[in-house]
Amino acid sequence: MKRPEPIQVVKQRRDAALRALMNGVPYIRFLGIAFDRRGDELTGVLHYDEKLIGNPGLPALHGGATAAFLEVTATMTLCWATLWDDLEAGRIDVATLSASQPTRLPKTIDFTVDYLRSGLPRDAYARARVNRSGRRYASVHVEGWQDNRDRLFAQATGHFLMPPRA
Amino acid sequence: MSGTDDNAIVAARNFVASLPHCRALGMVVEAAGDGVATLSMPYSEALIGDPGTGVIHGGAISALMDTSGGVAVLSHSTGAAMTATMDLRIDYMRAAEPGGRITARAHCRHVTRSVAFVRAEAFDEMPGSGPVAVANGAFALERATDP
Hints:
CATH topology of chain A: Thiol Ester Dehydrase, Chain A
Number of strands of chain B: 8
Distance between the termini of chain B: 32 Å
Helix content of chain B: 25-40%
CATH class of chain B: Alpha Beta
Largest sheet of chain A: 6 strands, antiparallel
Structural class of chain A: alpha+beta
Largest interface: A-B, 40 and 38 residues
Number of strands of chain A: 8
Strand content of chain B: 35-45%
Strand order of the largest sheet of chain B: 1-2-6-7-8-5
Mean pLDDT of chain B: 93
CATH architecture of chain B: Roll
Shape of chain B: globular
Number of domains of chain A: 1
Strand content of chain A: 25-35%
Helix content of chain A: 25-40%
CATH superfamily of chain A: Hotdog Thioesterase
Order of helices and strands of chain B: HHEEEEHEEEE
Number of domains of chain B: 1
Low-confidence stretches of chain A: none
Shape of chain A: globular
CATH class of chain A: Alpha Beta
Strand order of the largest sheet of chain A: 1-2-6-7-8-5
Distance between the termini of chain A: 31 Å
Number of helices of chain B: 3
CATH superfamily of chain B: Hotdog Thioesterase
Oligomer: heterodimer
Largest sheet of chain B: 6 strands, antiparallel
């Protein structure tokens, strides 16, 4: 049996690939979104900033910022899921992923957001589940929460057009 | 009545100017009144969602359409004091042309005591190309007179 790879090699490869995906997208930086990775599971983290506020009276996060956060989490999770096998099998070189050609991201066809309660002025988290992923289309559900994982403040479902496989 | 419309635009501009996220995206109220609102937003490299093409992220267009929906609701004669998005579905018809402004126009299709049903369309600067995105949403109304 093949010896397992050293942990640093595994982590370095996965984290570098994730960074390469994210760093290419300016809007992810603009909103202050980061991703926590546990194995192949991603959790989106929307770091609170005053510029995300859409109702200064309450105050509450802007519905558009919430929608964008959920959409970014859905897209990245989908992209990550399609990349994972190739990355782990060594069919993708992380160096080429980060450098020259920007990754071809899935395109959003439609996105439906369900606002369950107002977003509080603090960090928010989101996790997406790919419910169907075909060669051309994917359907993704994403849940967002803040203090309590069981009390979602928003959820969304979207359909995505997959990039043509190289 | 143009006097009423002017008041509605001033109210809408003050409202949007008070929202930090709208300021961050550079949103401007072009028109507002009678349950219809038009808002626009400049292109910015910070908003790019696809680095390969320079097309801005759908999330930014979603924020513009959401805000134009809210402004349309507040400008409606029903007299809502505040509104919150309950649900918004966006169909992304085509990529917005990089470099140009995005303009969204929202109108209240029907308003009940507690809910406004809103439709919005977003356009780039390509004439005759149709909307880049279309949205339908339900907005909850809060009335000043509610107990």
